Amino acid sequence: MHAYGGPEMLKVENVPRPEPKDDEVLIRVVAASINPVDVAIRKGYLAELVGNRFPLILGMDAAGMVQKTGSKITKFRRGDLVFAFFSLAGEGGYGEFVTAKENEVAVKPKTVNFEQAAAVGAAGSTAWEALIDEANLSAGQTVLIHGGAGGVGHFAIQIAKARGAKVIATGSTANQDFLKQMGADVAIDYTKTKFEDVARDVDVVLDSVGGDTLERSYGLVKKGGIIVTIADDVNQAALDAHGIRGVALRCTPKADVLEGLAQLMTAKKLMPVVSQTFPLADVVKGQEQIATRHTRGKIVLQVAEEPKN
Predict the structure, then answer these.
(1) pLDDT mean across residues, the chain
(2) 4 and 43 Cβ atoms separated by less than 8 Å
(3) pLDDT in tens, 21-43
């Protein structure tokens, strides 16, 4: 991208290959995922955080092979198969090569392919940080996950089940079976049923919808519980009125979170669902699909062929 704007701003171009700094690895990208935040960045909504550093290569997460390492890198070496989640200041997954800090990278589990691994970084980390780091979700607790069929939502269901929690998840009519497949104990079709008629006295709400959905959720959380939203700001007056906590989460890369996600994938307790794959040249189609806000699981760009060995 050479400027903010519509999908037509995305161009496939030849640019110089990035060189890793002393504290970075260079990754040869096999697959990268498309996230809703990519659309927000393209439109300029996050210009204050991203800056005007054009040309800009989008892409918050990727999977591939370590091509080169900086002198201060100790955890990785050339040839390692990895997945990564980049900060807003250092994105660039939509390309053949990308650099990453050591704390933005983890070894790719053998239980998933590159497309699945590419899907995990940003969305999986968001679900983990919301449920584990912020909410401290534990066995026996109940969590309500809004938008359970989406990128963050389908990871959140699986992470919550791995923690031993009871999961209530909302989704459209078409996604009811999918929510159950992911592990939801109770699936709510929000087009037919008010979720507040089913979910009461929950310990945690994870909201990826915002607006009216978030407002209607404050009264469902038991005293001392927590709402974590990734789609809106919390209403402090409503939190105070119900005696609960609230966090508007903006996720950042953490090595221990990526490693925790990798452990769950290795144990087959977390399986990324990739609903569509596009070649890099069709990135505009991929962004148009994610912008519908009705994507099941994740959308991934295939950047290169999987390495043979």
Answers:
(1) 96
(2) yes
(3) 999 999 999 999 999 999 999 99
What type of residue sits at position 214?
L
Asked if 250 contacts 133 with a C-beta cutoff of 8 angstroms, the reply is no
Q: Please answer whether residues 218 and 242 qualify as being in contact, where contact means their C-beta atoms are separated by less than 8 angstroms.
A: yes
Round to whole Å and give the CA distance between 106 and 80. 10
Written as six digits, the tokens of 35 are 């996230």
Q: Are 282 and 137 in contact (CB under 8 A)?
A: no
**Letter string b/e over residues 91-122, b meaning 16 or more CB atoms within 10 A of that residue's CB:** bbbbbbbbbbbbbbbbbbbeebebbbbbbbbb
Half-sphere exposure of 264 (CA within 13 A, CB side): 25
Strands 97-101 and 61-69, by their bridges, are unpaired
Residue 94 is predicted with a pLDDT of 97
The whole-number average pLDDT for the span 43-55 is 90
The helix (H) or strand (E) run that includes residue 89 is none
Share of the chain above pLDDT 70, in %: 100
